[in-house]
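We emphasize that the prediction below concerns an isolated chain of 187 residues; any contacts that depend on oligomerization or on bound cofactors are therefore not represented. The input was used exactly as deposited, without trimming of termini.
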Amino acid sequence: MRDQTEVPTFDRVYEDYADKVLNLVYRMSGNEETARDLTQDIFLKVYENLDSFERRSNIYTWIYRIAVNHVYNHLKRERRFRWVGLLDKTVHEVLSEKEVEPIFSPHAAPPPADVSLEGAERADLVWRTVRSLPPRYRVPIVLYHYEGMSYKEIASTTGLSMSAVETRIHRGRKKLLKMLEPWIDRI
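Result of the prediction step, given as a token string:
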């Protein structure tokens, strides 16, 4: 096991975290090519700043903070989503905001009652619904459910308190259930 106080080499960091960061970036951007480009940019930042890593947190948390901030900055530049106005703020400010209009409404066209959704369709529906959540709920849910981060790691990455992370994940789940209600019997 490696010494936690020792800063690992860039090669080791890349080997350990590149796939996880790529998955996170893809989930946040929704585009594979963009995710690959952004992941390269993120690891360039990691390479340039690895010597300044102060070991106040786990290196994994530090890299995820860089990744989340970089993706938010990219989304702001690209103006891809309706909630772009929120992206003029820091990650902490975005997560502190009130409601935002969803970019996807699962209530639009539910399938007929006698049609059940297949696994891939179900996963796609849930993922599109997660992506439609306001960023204050989406980010903690993605980090927890899709990236496997603990509440403590999410709190460190986002700058939120542990209770705020717990509350947002709980409220985000409730919003997801409400949004998915028309499909509950089919998924």
